[in-house]
Amino acid sequence: MFAGLIFVSSVIAIPMIMDRQVDAVSAGLTSIRACVQNPGVMLLWGALITTVIGLSMLPYFVGLLVAGPVVGHATWHAYRAIVPDAQDKINEQK
Length: 94
Hints:
The protein is mainly alpha-helical. It has helices at 2-10, 13-19, 24-37, 39-56, 64-82, 86-93. It has one domain (2-86).
């Protein structure tokens, strides 16, 4: 339960804080909103992260050298696909 709560509140929040000038509360609420709107996808994403990280720890944690950056890169692309850029919103309104 605790891991699920941490996942829901941070899956979008961490890349969002790195990308934009937002506070932690707004980023966390955006992350929760994204998980509520896409429950199946987020459940699958959480399961994939758990599996990849779990398997990468088997060979004496050496696999994390590859799995960490790959999961981080994929999370960045998931964030960019879920949360529209401010410029995208402006272009939509025109």
